[in-house]
Design a protein that fits this description.
Blueprint (H helix, E strand, L loop, with lengths): L4 E2 L3 E6 L5 H9 L5 E4 L37 E3 L5 E3 L35 H5 L14 H16 L26 H13 L4 E3 L38 H7 L3 E4 L3 E8 L2 E8 L5 E11 L3 H10 L23 E9 L14 E3 L15 E3 L5 H4 L11 H11 L3 E9 L8 E8 L5 E5 L7 H21 L3 E5 L42 E3 L14 H18 L7
Parallel strand pairs: 1-10, 2-3, 2-10, 3-7, 10-18
Antiparallel strand pairs: 4-5, 6-12, 8-9, 9-10, 11-14, 11-17, 12-13, 13-14, 15-16
Helix pairs in contact: 1-5, 1-10, 3-10, 4-9
């Protein structure tokens, strides 16, 4: 390995160019703050990444289209014999956080949900839940509402909450109209939802329903979730805020740069060390550092960043780093009809109902249920009725007959955080750079009440499909494992939770790491809980807020 390359000092280093990091960089750059944005992957290019479902980022069979390469960058699991091994990329969670500029926002389903006010006050609303790490957020919905609005307008969200009686309050309408319902939702699903006394409404989407911010409107592509958009109508940080940051001249993006240490001198970070693809080590000095690498990789980087003041890892002085990590339990049901019901106008998911999100009288805070994105044949072949052949001529006949006869209704269950659910580093298994990989630590588990919420969601989805006329209904999510091993995929949150008490959190209410002067976190790892919705808009809103806070700390907090 060559000697370390030392770069000229900058004001801020931002680690990770995803949903959070890209926004933090933009907030800094437009306020005149010089920053370096480090991204472990490269720019995503549509012509180099075909819509092949075998490499779909969400449901891949061979590899994830935008990485990471799980051979070079594995995650560790127990081998059942007291040792560890590299996790099978398809189990327990086949999705991985994309390694590219924009990260998951390049290929996500792009649902743009706000959390509800109650989501920030779960403990106050439902009381202390025995055996859990449930806490209120140190900020309220009102604190974050302006930043939700900023995310909706700067990144771009289409929607309409006029028929959702449970919608969180908002001061401005969505910047774009909602997408129209597809044929099966309008003619089959929505009438059934209404007959059951529930309240359907269009799903808010981080996708252009009309031309917006100089980019095209969605063309209703069938291959959408898990893929790049062929007309650039899906709104991620790579095509919205990062170009704004770069255009200022104050932000420099360095791709293929893998951060491995935040260098500390006492309470202050003095820079970040990272590897390039030739395994050369670089040191980027800075006045402040923002880590936004995902709930797993942010925790990993902090565990690797040991110093005299933080011998057990940056931010781990109270043994909270990596704890309370959680995601969502996805559940619902699917139904087979006696006729073709899919018309295949993409992306597929168009309707939702939020009746199960918060019913304090019944101790329910489950989640939102939605019609699902279209599945291509390989993914669909795994969702079949019991006793149906899984291969051979019988399987082919089933697929030919029933491929367009299925409707799925699914959604994320708000998991109850647990102290024992923790991600750490595993020195017995190294990545391509020779660094310890992350792993779910033994002893983590899901709270039994999370499973009760899952059953409620599952039964309700099944009831809608039966009411809609499905001849066969199969429930998804009834058999949920209590052990917590699924920490590498989508919706990961909580490993560096925010709070008012440093003994129970890793960052303060401004998302600055406790006992540091200049280290901040800008991703979903700060979430105290993860809502009953896809969390990306909340990650974005917090990143707008955190970027503003970092700029203020440097004396550059003026309006953008």
């Amino acid at each position: 390995m060559a000697s370390e390359i030392v770069h000229p000092k900058t004001e801020v280093v931002v680690v990770g160019a995803g949903a959070g990091g890209g926004i933090v960089a933009k907030q800094l750059a437009v306020r005149g703050v010089k920053c370096i944005l480090l991204e472990r992957g490269d720019w995503p290019i549509y012509d180099e990444n075909s819509n092949d479902e075998l490499i779909n980022q969400r449901t891949h069979a061979i590899r994830a289209i935008h990485g990471p390469d799980t051979r070079k960058f594995p995650r560790a699991v127990s081998d059942g014999k007291g040792g560890v091994k590299a996790a099978d990329p398809w189990w327990p969670d086949h999705t991985v956080v994309a390694a590219c500029v924009g990260s998951g926002t390049v290929t996500y389903g792009a649902m743009g949900w706000r959390f509800m006010p109650q989501d920030f006050r779960l403990k106050s609303t439902y009381g202390a839940i025995e055996g859990s790490a449930l806490e209120d957020w140190p900020i309220s919905y009102d604190d974050i509402e302006p930043y939700y609005e900023q995310a909706e307008y700067e990144v771009g969200v289409s929607g309409d909450m006029s028929t959702n009686p449970y919608a969180p309050p908002r001061k401005k309408p969505f910047p774009m109209p909602a997408f129209e319902y597809n044929w099966e939702d309008e003619n089959i699903v929505i009438p059934a939802i209404k007959r059951l006394g529930l309240h359907p409404f269009p799903i808010p989407m981080l996708r252009n329903s009309v031309r917006y911010n100089g980019r095209a409107a969605c063309i209703r592509n069938h291959t959408c979730c898990g893929y790049m958009c062929p007309c650039d109508a899906k709104n991620g940080t790579q095509n919205t805020v990062i170009p704004v940051a770069l255009k200022t001249g104050n932000c420099q993006l360095r791709t293929n740069s893998f951060a491995y240490e935040v260098v500390m001198e006492g309470r202050r970070a003095v820079g970040v060390k990272y590897f390039d693809l030739d395994k050369n080590s670089h040191f980027q000095p800075a006045d402040a550092v923002v880590i936004a690498a995902s709930a797993t990789e942010t925790a990993r980087l902090m565990f690797l960043s040991k110093s005299k003041l933080f011998p057990d890892g940056l931010g781990n002085q109270n043994d909270m780093l990596g704890r309370c990590i959680h995601s969502h339990i996805y559940c619902g049901a699917w139904g087979l009809f006696d006729r073709d019901v899919e018309r295949e106008l993409g992306p597929g998911a168009t309707v939702a109902f939020s009746d199960l999100n918060h019913i304090p009288s019944k101790n329910i805070f489950a989640g939102v249920l939605c019609s699902e994105f279209y599945m291509l044949p390989w993914a669909r072949s795994k969702v079949i009725p019991p006793n149906t052949p899984r291969w051979g001529i019988g399987h082919k006949q089933h697929m030919i007959k029933n491929y367009r006869r299925m409707i799925r209704i699914v959604g994320p269950v708000q998991e109850i955080p647990m102290y024992e659910s923790r991600v750490g580093i595993e020195p017995r298994l190294k990545d391509w750079f020779g660094l310890p990989v992350y792993r779910a630590m033994p002893g983590g588990k899901k709270h039994p009440l999370s499973l009760e919420q899952t059953k409620i969601m599952t039964e309700t989805a099944a009831a809608v499909l039966k009411e809609a006329g499905a001849k066969t209904v199969c429930k998804e999510g009834e058999k949920v494992y209590l052990n917590y091993g699924s920490v590498g995929g989508q919706h990961q949150a909580g490993s560096c939770r925010m709070g008012n008490d440093p003994k129970k959190s890793v960052v303060d209410p401004q998302c600055k790491v406790w006992d540091t002067d200049n280290v901040w976190i800008g991703d979903g790892s700060v979430h105290v809980s993860n809502g009953g919705f896809n969390p990306v808009l909340t990650i974005m809103a917090l990143a707008f807020r955190t970027g503003e806070n970092v700029a203020k700390s440097l004396g550059k907090g003026g309006a953008a």
